[in-house]
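Provenance and format

Records in this collection were gathered into a single text stream. Each protein contributes a sequence line and a token line. The two records reproduced below are adjacent in the stream.
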Amino acid sequence: MGLTSQVINLFNLEFDGFDMPIGKWESAYGKQIGNCAQRVNINVKGNPKYDKVQKQNLWEESKRKFHIDDPKGSKEKKFHEAVGARFRKHKSWLVSRFITKETAPPPDSPSANIKPWELYEGYITEEQWKEFETYCNTDEFKALSEKGKENAKNNKHRHHLGSKSYERARVNWSKTNRILAESSTSSTTESTTSCVMSEKLKNRSLYWILARQTRNADGSWATDPKNAETQQIPNAILENLQKNGEGNNSSDGIGMDALDKALGKRDHRGHVKALGRCGVGVSHTQVFGKGYKKG
């Protein structure tokens, strides 16, 4: 077989029943998505509506690299959604770093005077940056920026996972005994996969709580004390779980579980909370079926 064969088979990415990446290479796949997003012209507008040939080439490259089998095309769809999400974040970071300078390093920092086309050499040209900078000073961009800031205020319960996905966080929580060890996600049998999906859905309220905890000086974990509104949610979740009974996290209609009740509404942002990774989420119909209604 030799070294060549080992390299070819290096990235054998696994997926769960929701067509979401899992396992050893999930993090590497996330980095691949981020790299693909950075290769899109920053002056492209949309979701992103970039060149169809480049769009397809990025997918084919990623598909080969991670040995992805996708007969239904569902994994490709999620890939493009993830690239689009990363692309938007990438442009937002460029604005805050180089234009508004909200996240710029101190003036005496070695990187203070670096130019964006130097930082992203091979990805951004000086000409592209000048065009981007000009657009960022237009009334159209400023209006969109203000709208985005207002929408961001609606996210009152921010997690503390950083770039880590819920999947990787879940593994760490299990290793550090913050949650009980759960079923292996590496099996490809239909019955085991179905069981794992049910387990993740049942426990998503717990994942949501853990993702919003910070570590105290004594090593214990607690909901962020700086966010009084978020502190109230865990107690409400636990009360709802007790009312529903252990192992029955869903009641009062499709998709209205302990977390939804605590928040006072069903998921409505296009994905189910506490199940996403690599910049894309799991859809409501994938989890709850076609009868689900956003609320």
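Adjacent record:
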Amino acid sequence: MAVRTADDYYAQLRALLPPGPAWDREFNPEVDSVLGSLAQELAREDLRAADLLAESLPDTVRELVPDWERVMELPDACMGESPTFDDRQLAVRRRLVEVGGQSRAYFLDLAFSLGYPQARIVEHRSPRFGRSRFGGGHFGTWSAQYMWTLEAGPRLRLGRRFGASYWGQRFGADPNGALECVVRRAAPAHAVEFINYG
């Protein structure tokens, strides 16, 4: 959406004036000040209309985050007591577009979005005839077919910094509780998941 400036609106209003001496600058100089004031107000409204369009999309929402949270029953309990504004924006986006799943790709995407780009999933195998080998160090149990491990790997430096945080925020890395909470909430009920951090 193209946002028009006050100069654009002034030129448009000037062009829309009817002909005649009542609208001439020489005879009536106050018309320019009235048109300038109207142009500034129209440009301000045009800018706010563009902002409203941006607020209607979850990718660009800023001012209406509390309203989106109210509708979507956020903030998420997994994000802690006082999540940052960026985390709240991300939660709004994810709640709106996320469809969920039980695949490896879904859980890897959860880990990636929380700052673990090197995450991988190890699925444990249960002993089955034809797949298991005698003499192996770890043969496993029948319940191993429902077990999997998320190897989180090192976390990106997403911690708070001086000058880019607000009063009361914790410096350094964020706690890992959000990853555990999100993964355990999304995991199937019959699964047993483990998380190893790098």
